[in-house]
Amino acid sequence: MSVSLARVTSVSPEETCALARRLGAALVPGDVLLLSGDIGAGKTHFARCLIQSLLTMPEDVPSPTFTLVQTYDTRAGELWHADLYRLSDPDQCAELGLTDAFETAICLVEWPDRLADLAPAEALTLEFSAGPEDTERRIILTGDPKRWAHLADRVPA
Ligand code: ADP
Ligand code: MG
Q1: Which of 12, 21, 45, 84, when mutated, tests ligand 1's pocket best, judged by the most ligand atoms within 8 Å of its CB?
Q2: Spatial contact of 61 and 89, defined as CB atoms under 8 Å apart
Q3: Which domains does the chain have, with CATH numbers?
Q4: How far is the CA of 65 from the centre of ligand 1 (A)?
Q5: Which InterPro entries match (predicted)?
Q6: Is there a contact between 85 and 67 (Cβ–Cβ < 8 Å)?
Q7: Minimal CB count within 10 Å: which of 15, 26, 35, 39?
Q8: Which residues surround ligand 2, an ion (CB under 5 A)?
Q9: Cα separation of 128 and 37, whole Å?
């Protein structure tokens, strides 16, 4: 069952970063976060903050726009960051190793609509959208409340 779990308003990049760090601290391998929303909505910013908070050594976290995926060794285990904007065929996900990573790693996936029916049913979706102010963003979290109970106390009420 997938329901709207939380609606967050972030008024600044730093506030989005803080949310990313809070959620990141509770993630375990097998957790898949689908980051949807228009260009500039804040998907990569969120992913970068989350990844940096889990790295043991400082490392650049580039947008995977051209490479499609970037992988990291983090203190929570292996983490995959994907940007599927340029994905031409969902079957490419198996070739990239992403479909296996859904089972074994923490995965953050931008442009998850490109996955079509390969998107894991258990994933948590974060839908980013612009707010009325320049630095305002809405983030709607949707997923199975039981599957994502470990994140419940990490989202502002
Ligand atoms: P996307 O990956 O969704 O295309 P990016 O994360 O690359 O978007 O870019 C988002 C841009 O919006 C960044 O330059 C970021 O600093 C800016 N921004 C402004 N306000 C916010 C906010 N509240 N949360 C996230 N990003 C914000
Ligand atoms: Mg991006």
Answers
A1: 45
A2: no
A3: 11-139 (3.40.50.300)
A4: 15
A5: P-loop_NTPase, T6A_TsaE
A6: no
A7: 39
A8: 43-44, 110
A9: 5
